[in-house]
Amino acid sequence: MLKLEIVTPERRVVDIEAESVTVPTASGEAGILTNHAPLISALKPGVLTYAAKGATEKLAISSGFVEVSGNQVSVLTDVAESPEEVDAERARADREEAERELAANSTAAEEENESVRERLDLANARLSLAASR
Fold this sequence. Notes:
The protein has 133 residues and is α+β, with helices and mostly antiparallel strands. The chain has helices spanning 88-104, 114-131, and strands at 2-7, 12-18, 20-25, 28-33, 39-43, 46-52, 55-61, 64-69, 72-77, 80-81. Helix 1 (88-104) packs antiparallel against helix 2. The longest helix is centred in the last third of the chain and has 18 residues, at 114-131. The two termini are 27 Å apart.
């Protein structure tokens, strides 16, 4: 079993024993099982999934960090929302605004649009989660 802890600046979102965790890292999705090798990685906005007590749970998360040490998985992120917490209308508006900004800045260097892309990815993760309710 893994000890999973997901923390935002406002609250401890999850503190549970889990069988597995899947996180969206900067280099792709990472699946974490018991006795995983030590890991520290940057997170990108997306959907975090974990299996605990026979159920699979999902959260929309923003960028942040994940650390795996022993059988402890610590996720530090600015946003972690369950499907029930997602405001689909706000997520749609956020997505549309980010798409407009990217279109307006299409000639800018990729680094200049990074924060807008992160907002777009978070909005898409929220919408994906809201659709799965």
